[in-house]
Amino acid sequence: MEIKLNVSWKKTLQAINEQVITRAIQASGYSAILFVVVIFIFLMREGLPALEEVSVSNLFSARWYPIEDYFGILPLLGGSLIVTLGAALVAVPFGLGTAIFIAEIAPRWAREILKPFVEVMAGIPSVVLGFLGIVALAPRLRVLLDLPTGLTALAGSLLLGGISIPTVVSVAEDALDAVPRAYRDAALALGATRWQTIWRVTLPAARSGVITAVMLGVGRAIGETMTVMMVTGNAPVIPAGLAGLFAPARTMTATIAAEMGEVAAGSVHYHVLFFIGILLFLISLVINLTASAVVFRQRKRAERILS
Amino acid sequence: MRELCLVCILLALLSACASPSGNQPAAPAPVTTIQNKGSDTMVNLALAWAELYQSQHPEVSISVTGGGSGTGISALANNTVDIANASRAIKPEEIETIQRNGAAPVEFVVARDAIAVIVNHANPVEQLTLQQISDIYSGKLTNWSQVGGENRPIVRLSRETNSGTHVYFLEEVLRLGREDDKTLFAPETLLLPSSEGITAEVRDNPNAIGYDGLGYITPDVKVLGVAAASGQPYYYPSVETVNNKTYPIARDLYMYTLGEPQGAKAAYLQWILQPEAQQVVRELGFVPVTSP
């Protein structure tokens, strides 16, 4: 009798444990949604008053000088776009090239060395890269390209490209690795060269993963702060097309980082900085949605073809 | 059984936490802490003062942080620091904020500072008038040949807008001290987050012009002579030219407290004006307020 009671008590305890653990895991799963919603509400509450306090013509003007109430965010938007575009131009070819080399071409021993090195590269603190940019990269860029100053969007782009490469490499390499062996064998059996196999078969088969890799890399670049603040010169000028790469630029992230510490809570400047935060949030949201939309459409097409 | 173990461990932990206070000797006299925050221009000076003062007065502990004059004053307004350092006088709206919280700021002039205008050693330009510096930074002059230099583009360097040095330079140099003047920095002006950033770029780049506190100038950049107006003599910044008010870009450095300081704070602020502390000012490249 006593033993039986003990057993059933144990069983209830187990059931309760099970319940608690299940709930805890569920809660931590849903908490991601909760955090995003809370952050979004907070951003909106602090940032939207900017639209009432600053006239739209001021907000979308070309002059950013907050201590005299010039709140034109166009130079900051332009600065972020040009630096990110430059970073993508660096990170996409180099990142995909490295990923293809590691996944498709490199012999086993080279792969074993390359992969950890790429991962170490991802771990370099951005402030260290920024310091290298100031003392080594910017002076050389100025002399090499005969620019007035080396502290330009280009310096930021090169370093941000370097920061994004590990992200692009590891995600793209995983995607290439997941392409079934049979695809390559079939292509080679049909007489395709190695390059034709990579370019026409493996890469298209892994396309959704590759696009995710590029999008994640771009997302990493647009959110990076410390490095760009140190090397882009932070001059709030609207970039004049691609030539803007060779001039100083001021990004949205660097502006928030440089000015948030000083600003009085609740002031107009404070609200505008949060409004810039909303814009950054929306931009990365759009990037992520585009990426998943592309991936989703392709998966459907692939399923249709295979079925 | 497991629960029992847990309880034991908890008890052991608790007793471990509690025991040291029980059998330790009485702590030395209570330490008074003074929180000191503000101007980045003054952070080295404030640190040197704090170190010297603490070595003489072990019962006082002073913690110094930078962040900018505005940061220090808003921390004072929120009553999170005891003394705010500022490289500019407090603004009327900042006084208003503090008064809304039911207090009044008290001002102390603790040192003087001069802003040096610097260029690369390879730049042949030796001196400029205030008007020329203003025109360079507002974007009216874009080539060094317009002020007697080589045919090179001018790259303007400035501290970020949250720096007291930036605001001072805007008001006293760009706008030449005129209240109604609305001249702004040219948008192409590079805004660098640190003094080191400016020195590094000027040291390296023959196109660059920068400005910074006299205390931060290193020998690897060239300091320009400045004249208040064309036709007037050019002066180089130094302790003498700042004290006899001939160098045109000089300012007072301030400390602010909430209400008249009491106790340790009052003693510290009094000590800062003594010759001993003012000697530290001289050593760091600033200018003492009382001649020792």
How would you briefly describe this protein structure?
The complex is a heterodimer of chains A (307) and B (292). Chain A is mostly helical and 307 residues long. Chain A has helices spanning 2-47, 49-53, 56-59, 74-105, 108-122, 126-145, 153-177, 181-189, 194-205, 207-223, 226-231, 252-260, 268-306; strands at 64-65, 70-71.
List the helices and strands and how they pair.
The complex is a heterodimer of chains A (307) and B (292).
Chain A (H helix, E strand, L loop, with lengths): L1 H46 L1 H5 L2 H4 L4 E2 L4 E2 L2 H32 L2 H15 L3 H20 L7 H25 L3 H9 L4 H12 L1 H17 L2 H6 L20 H9 L7 H39 L1
Antiparallel strand pairs in A: 1-2
Helix pairs in contact in A: 1-13, 4-7, 4-10, 5-7, 6-7, 7-10, 8-9, 10-13, 12-13
Chain B lengths: L1 H22 L8 E7 L4 H14 L3 E6 L3 H9 L5 E4 L5 H9 L4 E15 L7 E3 H9 L16 E5 L4 H11 L15 E3 L2 H10 L3 E6 L8 E2 L1 E3 L11 H5 L6 E9 L4 H10 L2 H9 L9
Parallel strand pairs in B: 1-2, 1-3, 5-10, 6-7, 6-8
Antiparallel strand pairs in B: 3-11, 4-8, 4-9, 4-11
Describe the structure.
The complex is a heterodimer of chains A (307) and B (292). Chain A is mostly helical. Chain A folds into 2 domains: 2-47; 51-306, MetI-like (MetI-like fold, Orthogonal Bundle), CATH 1.10.3720.10. Chain A is built from 13 helices and 2 strands, in the order αααββαααααααααα. Chain A has helices at residues 2-47, 49-53, 56-59, 74-105, 108-122, 126-145, 153-177, 181-189, 194-205, 207-223, 226-231, 252-260, 268-306, and strands at 64-65, 70-71. A two-stranded antiparallel ribbon of chain A has the order 1-2. In chain A, strand 1 (64-65) and strand 2 (70-71) form a beta hairpin. In chain A, helix 10 packs antiparallel against helix 13 (268-306). Chain A is globular and about 75 Å long. Chain A starts with a helix and ends with a helix. Chain B is of the alpha/beta class and 292 residues long. Chain B has 2 domains: 33-112 and 252-283, D-Maltodextrin-Binding Protein, domain 2, CATH 3.40.190; 113-250, 3-Layer(aba) Sandwich (D-Maltodextrin-Binding Protein, domain 2). Chain B has 10 helices and 11 strands. Chain B has helices spanning 2-23, 43-56, 69-77, 92-100, 130-138, 164-174, 195-204, 239-243, 263-272, 275-283, and strands spanning 32-38, 60-65, 83-86, 105-119, 127-129, 155-159, 190-192, 208-213, 222-223, 225-227, 250-258. The longest helix of chain B has 22 residues, at 2-23. Chains A and B meet through strand 1 and helix 6 of A and helix 3, strand 7 and helix 7 of B.
